[in-house]
């Protein structure tokens, strides 16, 4: 099933990173989308906002799933005291929903995000 989400939610011709309902939400460089939860939600790689957004396809609510939109920030990593991986320029999203794990292709690496541990 193909769902065209950007006809009913979000503005793409802007440089803002606001969450919201429908056209109150702003995206900046949509790079990839990934349906999850049986298509009820869609993850969006918001390239120039350095974050992963989540769109509820029923309520049209756009929220931040990973990162802080508008800023490249380290992803949480409770397993290591090493330098944090910065979520910047996300280009592709891959999901393993059975393990609650997502992989993001960033501009120069792939990172794993275990949503149960942060």
Which percent bin holds the helix content? under 10%
Structural class comes to: mainly beta
How are helices and strands ordered from N to C? Answer: EEEEEEEEEE
For the residues shown, what is the average pLDDT? 77
Strand order of the largest sheet: 1-5-4-3-2
Please give the number of β-strands. Answer: 10
- CA gyration radius, whole angstroms: 14 Å
Shape: globular
The main sheet comes to:
5 strands, antiparallel
Measured by DSSP, the beta-strand proportion falls in 35-45%
N-C termini distance:
30 Å
Spans of at least 5 consecutive residues with low confidence: 1-8, 79-83
Report the total helices: 0
Number of domains: 1
How would you summarize what this structure contains?
Helix content is 0%, strand content 39%.
Notes on the protein architecture:
By secondary structure, the protein is mainly β. The protein has one domain. The chain has strands at 20-21, 30-36, 41-46, 51-56, 61-66, 73-74, 86-87, 92-96, 101-105, 110-114. Strands 1-5-4-3-2 form a five-stranded antiparallel beta sheet, with no helix packed on it. Strands 8-9-10 form a three-stranded antiparallel beta sheet, with no helix packed on it. A two-stranded antiparallel ribbon has the order 6-7. It is globular and about 30 Å long. The N and C termini lie far apart (30 Å). The relative contact order is 0.17. Mean pLDDT is 77; it is low at 1-8 and 79-83. Residues 1-16 form the signal peptide. Keywords: Signal. InterPro entries: 6-blade_b-propeller_TolB-like.
């Amino acid at each position: 099933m193909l769902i065209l989400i950007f006809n009913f939610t979000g503005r793409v011709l802007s440089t803002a990173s606001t969450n919201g309902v429908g056209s109150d939400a702003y995206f900046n460089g949509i790079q990839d989308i990934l349906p999850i939860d049986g298509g009820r939600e869609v993850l969006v790689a918001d390239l120039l906002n350095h974050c992963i957004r989540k769109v509820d396809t029923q309520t049209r609510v756009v929220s931040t799933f990973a990162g802080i939109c508008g800023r490249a920030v380290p992803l949480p990593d409770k397993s290591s005291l090493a330098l944090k991986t910065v979520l910047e320029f996300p280009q592709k999203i891959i999901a393993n929903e059975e393990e609650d794990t997502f992989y993001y292709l960033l501009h120069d690496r792939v990172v794993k995000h275990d949503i149960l541990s942060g």
